[in-house]
Specification:
By secondary structure, this protein is an alpha+beta fold. It has helices spanning 3-22, 64-68; strands at 29-34, 37-42, 49-51, 84-88, 94-98, 101-102, 124-126.
Length: 130
């Protein structure tokens, strides 16, 4: 393959990879493979969770619950993107949601890929892609 053509192929491959990651670029939400399968993470690779007591578009996790399970906060100016929406919490902060399910971190996850919050109380679960 001529050298020029090889560079074009490399550039096209890099552009395709970049485009694939842009789906979640504005949300700060990514995916990672863990022992529990592919899960949603924040930009640092920390696992995100859902809470079965939440209603679609509404968080039921406040006070001490939110201290233990910090919400995935949407920064000012963030806009919903594809399957990711933004909900308004009771304290007026904005939180990312996936298919309407608010997303949270678990305070005891210490490193990217940790999934120690899975199944706690039978109500906390890693957020998986649909």
């Amino acid at each position: 393959m001529p050298r020029f053509r090889l560079h074009l192929v490399s550039i096209a491959a890099a552009a395709a990879a970049l485009t694939a990651n842009m789906t979640f670029a504005d949300t700060g939400i990514m995916t990672a493979k863990t022992k529990l399968g592919t899960v949603l993470t924040d930009a640092k690779g920390m696992t995100l969770y859902t809470y079965t007591k939440d209603k679609t578009g509404m968080s039921a996790c406040e006070g001490q619950c939110a201290a233990n399970w910090p919400p995935m906060i949407a920064p000012a100016g963030a806009k919903p993107e594809d399957d990711y929406t933004i909900i308004k919490r009771s304290d007026s902060t904005m939180q990312w949601a996936y298919y309407g399910k608010p997303l949270y971190h678990w305070m005891n996850d210490k490193a990217p890929g940790d999934t120690t919050g899975e199944g706690i109380g039978g109500v906390w679960h890693v957020a998986k892609t649909q």
